[in-house]
Design brief:
Helix content: 10-25%
Number of strands: 12
Strand order of the largest sheet: 7-8-9-10-11-1-2-3-4-5-6-12
Largest sheet: 12 strands, mixed
Order of helices and strands: HHEEEEEEHHEEHEEEE
CATH architecture: Clam
Length: 239
């Protein structure tokens, strides 16, 4: 039972975090960073960009670093987001599909021909906070949930970006992540990269987005479960 609860936490953390992973927020010191941007200007840009945001598609690379054993693992996939729906498809060797729609988070593992379905109703606010982190969130939303600090300007993937540091205000979020860094593309105000630092361990993960398309044309059917015939469905107890 304990192992299942820990597995559920890891899956929710990964799916949400990418989701997305996936990330943002909040209430903050309005200090100036290095360069021409100020925190006020960045948050205003995010406010404006959020008004027309409907979704995105992108390629995603997730790198997990375990500090104590100096271990690093990387996986690749694609992400599609629209409203409160998300489809994350990770490639082999650890192939799996993570589908979030409403209060249901499904994790399909083709190698096992099994799908695990989690009801996230009790944790929906937390899930939404992570899933929408950087994806259409306004500056006001970020300030509601995080202490926000402007770090610097940098170039990533030949794009000009602004780096923000987010310190969670919510105890449940702080229990998982001590801080989050996000690099926003100055031309689209969508995230190019996110770095999440785990509380206590010092381990972290970097989520890097490329081939980003803002407001792509998507069909509702893309967010419906299409598991192969014979797929086993299980409902683990959530955290």
């Amino acid at each position: 039972m304990i192992r299942r609860r820990k597995a559920a936490l890891r899956i929710l953390s990964f799916g949400i975090c990418l989701l997305a992973t996936l990330i943002f927020a909040a209430g903050a010191a309005r200090s100036q960073g290095k360069g021409s941007w100020t925190l006020e200007r960045v948050l205003t840009q995010l406010d404006d960009a959020s008004k027309s945001f409907k979704g995105l598609s992108a390629d995603v690379e997730r790198t997990k670093v375990t500090v104590v054993v100096n271990d690093k693992s990387t996986e690749n996939g694609t992400i599609l987001v629209r409203g409160d729906k998300m489809l994350l498809e990770m490639k082999p060797p650890d192939a799996r599909t993570i589908l979030r729609s409403g209060d249901t988070l499904s994790v399909y593992t083709p190698g096992l021909k099994r799908v695990e379905e989690y009801n996230i109703g009790k944790n929906r606010t937390l899930v939404d906070e992570f899933m929408q982190l950087g994806f259409g969130q306004s500056g006001k939303d970020l300030e509601k949930h995080y202490l926000v600090t402007l770090q610097a300007e940098a170039e990533l993937d030949q794009r000009k970006t602004v780096e923000l540091e987010l310190t969670p205000k919510t105890e449940s979020v702080r229990a998982q992540f001590s801080k989050i860094l996000i690099w926003f593309d100055e031309s689209s105000w969508l995230p190019v990269q996110q770095q999440l630092f785990e509380t206590g361990s010092g381990d972290y993960e970097i989520i890097h987005y490329t081939q980003i398309v803002r407001n792509p044309k998507t069909d509702e059917s893309e967010f419906k479960p299409h598991w192969p015939k014979g797929t086993e469905k299980i409902h683990p107890q959530g955290p």
